[in-house]
Design a protein that fits this description.
Blueprint lengths: L4 E2 L6 E4 L4 E3 L14 E7 L2 E6 L2 E6 L12 E2 L6 E4 L4 E3 L14 E7 L2 E6 L2 E6 L10 E2 L6 E4 L4 E3 L14 E7 L2 E6 L2 E6 L10 E7 L3 E6 L5 E4 L22 E4 L5 E4 L25 E10 L25 E2 L4 E22 L2 E24 L4 E10 L4 E10 L22 E6 L15 E3 H17 E2 L16 E7 H10 L20 E8 L4 E6 L4 E6 L10 E7 L1
Antiparallel strand pairs: 1-2, 2-3, 4-5, 5-6, 7-8, 8-9, 10-11, 11-12, 13-14, 14-15, 16-17, 17-18, 19-20, 20-21, 22-23, 24-29, 25-28, 26-27, 26-28, 26-29, 30-31, 32-37, 33-36, 34-37, 35-36
């Protein structure tokens, strides 16, 4: 009972032999027969274009070898119709089975590495195209005039000569400013153009005082302005010393007393004559020309505090006296003295005008002695005596007080030659008073301006004296390589000898410099270690001659360590 099914080609038509004919509904959801098919498929330029109702997608074909059996596919637009150039036509069944309008067209086409990938509603499909040849070609030359070659092609020689075939007349041979013109020269001659119309770059500076003695604005033609601060450290415009110009080595600064200063040779004037010697006075008068004198008393017997209540000493007339002897001039008592023909133990005190002074001399089995006492000022009318406070023994005793006074000064000699304008430092005033050591202080805090050269020196000396006395000796190496885990004790390095070795014989000196650097004696210096690596050194000490003693207790971790040494001038 074989039967054939057939169709007349109309949509949905199905017939069966010796049976009926049925027309099925084959329309999809949108009942359109045109949107499920590609409407164009072509190569445009170097691209492959595929078009359907959703648009056109392209992929470049430049990497594909075009030397193939090119054939063109086409369609007459009816559903399923496909034709190939020089071939037949076929009609495909383009009805899909799911009636979905979104999964019948390609949504993407591109290259993924060496693969060509096409994407539609069903996913991605890829094909490896790495085996396809490319049409890349390189152009090259062998360097000869006009030579050009192409890969897998011919070589061409171009004519590159210009009209005159000369290689020397295409360059400029000179470029210069001559007078006010710019001149350019080549083989055909010179051309020039005047530069005067360009103007110049001359610019003038000017200034405007913004705040007197504080700020000035600097201006430049055709440029910007800037404001600068002209204040000095203390903001005082009146304390800057202005030295006169000129002067030679060895000259000194002199003034005429009216504010005018100049450089003069340092030639002192003649010394004025010495004043005459003061006359020698009698006992009780001023000592000869001033100086030292002794007022003394005596006792032929032994010390005895009971004799005349201790006032047992006589003053040349054999009589004891508690009233004493007249000094006769202004003086200062500085010492007490004592002598005896035999040993004495006891205490004798100086009295002035019958009053104890607390100045004593003590003896312990002694025959002579002199002791300093706290200075005691004496008037011309004062009377001196001595009193035995305690003691016994001795004979032919003499006790005295040493007094000191200024003598009568002779008249002053005439002044030196005024032409030299010699002046002491306290006689040279500053042109403008300045402050050396009180910067930042107010008057209430002790701000004082210096007015003379002497005041400036006295103010600045404390500032500079400490720094000038401190210096670092030259660098030296201390070998600790012998350390192997056990401390090495009582090692020494002569710091002073190292200092003399390097300062005394320098390796080089500037032109005109002495061959040796001035140095100090070992006893003129103090020696200090301000730091020593405690991991390497211990138990450091320095003697008065600069010899450093130390123990080695380790090695430096980086093959280098420090001992900082400082010298201070005594």
């Amino acid at each position: 009972d074989d039967q054939d099914i057939s169709t007349d080609g109309t949509a949905g038509n199905i017939s069966i032999d010796d049976g009926s004919t049925l027309t099925l509904n084959v329309d999809d959801a949108d009942s359109s027969v045109t949107n499920e098919v590609n409407t164009a498929f072509e190569v445009s330029g170097g691209n492959l274009n595929i078009t359907d109702s959703d648009g056109t997608l392209s992929v470049p074909l430049t990497s594909i070898d075009t030397d193939t059996d090119d054939q063109t596919l086409s369609t007459d637009g009816t559903a399923g119709d496909i034709s190939i150039a020089d071939g037949n036509n076929i009609t495909l069944n383009v009805d899909d089975a799911d009636s979905v309008i979104g999964n019948e067209y390609n949504t993407g086409i591109g290259f993924d590495g060496t693969n060509l990938t096409v994407t539609d509603g069903g996913g991605n499909q890829s094909v490896d195209i790495s085996g396809l040849d490319t049409d890349d070609q390189d152009i090259s030359t062998d360097g000869t005039a006009g030579n050009i070659s192409i890969d897998d092609g011919s070589t061409l020689t171009l004519n590159v000569d210009d009209a005159d075939s000369s290689v020397t007349n295409e360059v400029n041979t000179a470029f210069a400013v001559v007078g006010t013109n710019l001149r350019i020269t080549d083989s055909a001659g010179s051309l020039q153009v005047p530069l005067t119309a360009l103007g110049s770059d001359n610019q003038n500076l000017s200034h405007t005082i913004m705040v007197p003695n504080e700020e000035v604005r600097i201006e430049i033609n055709d440029g910007n302005n800037t404001t600068i601060n002209i204040e000095d450290a203390d903001a005082d415009p009146l304390n800057e010393i202005e030295l006169p110009t000129g002067g030679t080595n060895g000259q000194i600064l002199a003034t005429d007393g009216t504010g005018t200063y100049s450089w003069v040779d340092n030639v002192p004037g003649p010394q004025g004559p010495t004043g005459p010697q003061g006359e020698k006075g009698d006992m009780g008068d001023v000592p000869s020309g001033g100086g030292l004198d002794v007022i003394w008393a005596e006792e032929n017997s032994a010390l005895n505090p009971s004799t005349n209540s201790g006032f047992q000493f006589s003053f040349g007339n054999g009589a004891t006296s508690d009233s004493g002897v007249l000094v006769g001039y202004e003086a200062v008592a500085t010492k007490l003295s004592f002598s005896s023909s035999s040993a004495v133990t006891g205490v004798v005190e100086l009295y002035v005008n019958g009053v104890a002074t607390g100045r004593t001399i003590s003896l312990s089995s002694e025959t002579s002695k002199i002791v300093p006492i706290t200075s005691l000022s004496l008037a011309e009318s004062d009377r001196i005596t001595f009193r035995t406070i305690s003691g016994s023994g001795g004979s032919r005793i003499v006790v005295g007080v040493v007094i000191q006074t200024d003598g009568v000064t002779g008249p002053q000699g005439p002044a030196g030659d005024p032409a030299s304008d010699d002046q002491y430092d306290d006689e040279v005033p500053l042109r403008v008073n300045i402050d050396v050591d009180d910067t930042g202080k107010s008057v209430a805090q002790g701000y004082v301006e210096e007015t003379t050269v002497q005041e400036v020196i006295q103010a600045i000396a404390p500032i500079t004296s400490k720094a000038a006395r401190i210096f670092y000796p030259p660098s030296i190496a201390i070998d600790v390589s012998a350390y192997s885990g056990t401390p090495i004790v009582d090692e020494t390095t002569d710091l002073y000898a190292q200092y003399i070795a390097q300062f005394g014989i320098p390796a080089a000196a500037s032109t005109g410099a002495p061959t040796a650097i001035p140095t100090y004696a070992a006893t003129e210096l103090y020696y200090y270690v301000t730091y020593a690596d405690p991991a390497v050194f211990a138990n450091l000490s320095i003697n008065a001659n600069g010899v450093l003693e130390y123990d080695i207790v380790g090695q430096p971790t980086d093959y280098n360590s420090l001992i900082n040494v400082v010298f201070v001038v005594k």
